[in-house]
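Sample 1 of the test manifest.
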Amino acid sequence: MTQTASLFISIVIVLFVAYSFHLIKKDKLSIRYSLSWYILSVILLIAVWVPNLLVVLANLLGIYSPMNLVFFVGFCLSLWILFSLTRIVSIQSSKIKSLAQQIALSEKKDD
Amino acid sequence: MLKKLIIIPAYNESSNIEGTVAAIKKDAPDFDYVIINDCSTDNTLEICHKNNFNVVSLPINLGIGGAVQTGYLYAKKYGYDLAVQVDGDGQHNPAFLSKMANELIESNVNMVIGSRFLEKEGFQSSFMRRVGIRYFTRLIRMLTGKKITDATSGLRMIDRNIIELFANDYPDDYPEPETIVSLLNKGYSVKEIPVVMNERQGGVSSISATKSVYYMIKVTLAILFVKLRGK
C-alpha cells in the first residue's frame, strides 16, 4: 500500500470522527450508538498504518492484495453495524407499539 | 354471568362501522363491545363519537395485530371472561357469537374459531386465498397434528387465560395462523365451529394481491419460529 493511500484513507476517517464528535457535542448523536462506528474507524486505521500485520493476515486468508483485506474488513463491519440498526429498529417499534396502546387505553378512562 | 367482550378493529371503516355495531346490538345483546380505531384517516372516529360508540383510539397506526392486541389489553384491564374479534367490515356475522360462546364454555376449550370451510356455506373467499388457506391447514397439521380448516379466520373467541397471553404478546401483522400454532404448542385447546361469512361490505382488505406472497413467506417463517422457540 502506498503512503499516499494510507494518508488519504486516514484523512477520510479522521474527518468522519471529527464530524461525529461535533454531532455528539450538539446532542444530535448518542454516544451509545456511535461507539460501533469508532470501533470500525480504529480497526481501519490500524489496518492502514500497520502494513506488516495486513500483509501477514492477507497471506493467511489467501487474499492477494492487503488493500482488498482492508475493504473486506470495512465491508463486514459496516454490515454488522447495519444489522445492529435493524435490531434496534425492531426493539424500538415494539416499544412504540406498547406506548401507543397505553396512551389509547388511558385516554379512554378520561372520557 | 360471564363478562363477554367483542373487539372491533377498525381502520377506515366509516362505511361499515355503524352497520357492524347495529348488528351486534341486535344479534349479540349480551356482549359488550369496544371499537379499536387504528388511527383511521377517514371519519371513522367522528362516526363513533357521533353515535356514542365505545371506542379506544390509537394515536398512531399499528396495523391489525397491534389494534387487536389493544382490544385484549382492554379486556384484561376491565376483567372480561372471554373476548372475540369481529372485523369492522361486515364480514363477520354477530349472530354466531352466542353459539361460539356456548361452544367455548361447554367444550371447555381455550379458543373457538369460526370456520367458513367446515360446512362450506356463504362467502368462500377467492380461489387463490383458498389455496393459501389449505396450505396453512396442511402446515399446521404437520407441525401440531391438529386439523384447522380456516387458520386465517379473524372470527376467534378466547377465554381469560388466552386474553392475558395475547395482551402480553401478539404478532404485529398476520397474527391468525401463527397464534393458533403458538397456542397448540403451549398445550391449549383450539376448536372450530362452522360459520357463514359475508363478502366484505366496503373498505379495503389488509392483504392485497401483491402482498400475498410476502404474507405466505412471513407467516410460514413465523410458524416455524414458534415451533423452534418451543414452549
